[in-house]
Amino acid sequence: MIETSTEVQVRYAETDKMGVVYHGNYFTWFEIGRVRMLDEAGLPYREIEASGYLLPVLEATAQYLRPASFDDRLTIKTFIREMPTVRIKIDYEVWKDDTLLCTGSTRHAFVDENGSPSRPPAHFTERMKAYFS
User: Fold this and answer.
1) How deeply is 20 buried, as exposed, middle or buried, from its count of CB atoms within 10 A (0-12, 13-18, 19+)?
2) What is the model's pLDDT at position 133?
3) Nearest to 76 by CA among 61, 91, 57
4) What domain range includes position 9?
5) How sure is the predictor about 105, in pLDDT bands with cuts at 50, 70 and 90?
6) CATH number for the domain including 111?
7) Count of domains forming the chain
8) pLDDT tens for residues 37-69?
């Protein structure tokens, strides 16, 4: 399993008229966590793309448990719990201190530059084996 944590601070522009974070912003935070996780695993997304692979989102979910507000300091926990193959599932948790605010997941597929499904690049698979052996 891979797990990383990323800190974000809620900006005023991320809140709605009710003073709580607009629900769509959680998906931006999920992406922040996902990119950070790949960086920390030694697999920067920029390098994945440079080697001719893309990871489009196939599915995205979120379950909102408690609201976040302007200026809250949040922790985005990002997880890969299963060895990726052609598809990869990433789970997320958004925390304020010890309170879980939101959970979610995204599913991605490896595709080549033409959009055809593809196995991940060999260097990606080798790096992942270190976490899932």
Assistant:
1) middle
2) 80
3) 91
4) 2-131
5) very high
6) 3.10.129.10
7) 1
8) 999 999 999 999 999 999 999 999 999 999 999
